[in-house]
Request: fold
Amino acid sequence: MCIGVEANNVENIIKNVLEKIGGISTEHLRLPKKTFAKYMFLEARGMAQAHVAEELLDGWQSQDRTLYSDGTSKFGYAYATFDIQTSSGESRVVGLRDVSGGTAEEQLKVMKEVLNDVIGMKEGKEDRDMVAKIVYSIKNLMSDRCIVQKRFNEIVVPTVMEGWENMEEQEQEKVLKMNEFFCGLHFIVGMTDQAEAGLKVFDQLLFGEGKVGSLKTKRGISKGESGALRLIRTVCKAVQAKGCEKSGRPVQFQTYLRSVKGTAVVPLAPFRGNRFNITFYYTIRLPNRK
Reply:
């Protein structure tokens, strides 16, 4: 299961290995079934959580740890994940949960639930004091640049720490003294926005207010895109394997390439969910290509 075998398939795989590779009859053997496999997985998860709790509580007073938090949504579902990096540089996955919304308050609520689950697996019950100790040992916050994460950084300590309102101002400042880091990868997203804005200006310099390409034939899907981005998106969606499921023709294009060029490799990036990075990539690379 650690290498990705589904619990429902464990019995059949063990049976096939014994019979076809080992030559052992399984007719009278009692093999582990999916229920047993799931229980084993839950036990391993519980042991991992207890191990994480033990490490996070060990020497919490003198630790300078980093909390990594992030949220994402896929196909209508939202998720939040939390990792903690110890002073020695080792990372521990605290938990990943599905959430009902993408607000900072919802993310904070999930973080407390995750920490309580970890503590409960070690102590047999929830313990707010131990959760506060783990938060107290966190001196760095690492997340992306979205406003939700920034808001989360502001409320995480006062909300989690027990008796926050009764603490001395000096003690509050000591606890709140955290370093905030934000993912540098999102700088690329900002550069792609600027690249697209520059391409729009380039269009105007070349063609003025005249319509170009698909807009000229009144078939342009997005009037807000530059001509370069519109061309790149159209080509990628038409012939790339992860392009447009409705109108794309990736299989036919690969067949054509195989017959003409002797290869079926399409050296284009998937466009779905990747608009800005592709714009930046082609804006930087295309001028150097023939």
Remarks:
- The chain is about 50% helix and 15% strand.
- The chain has three domains: 7-45, 50-183, 188-288.
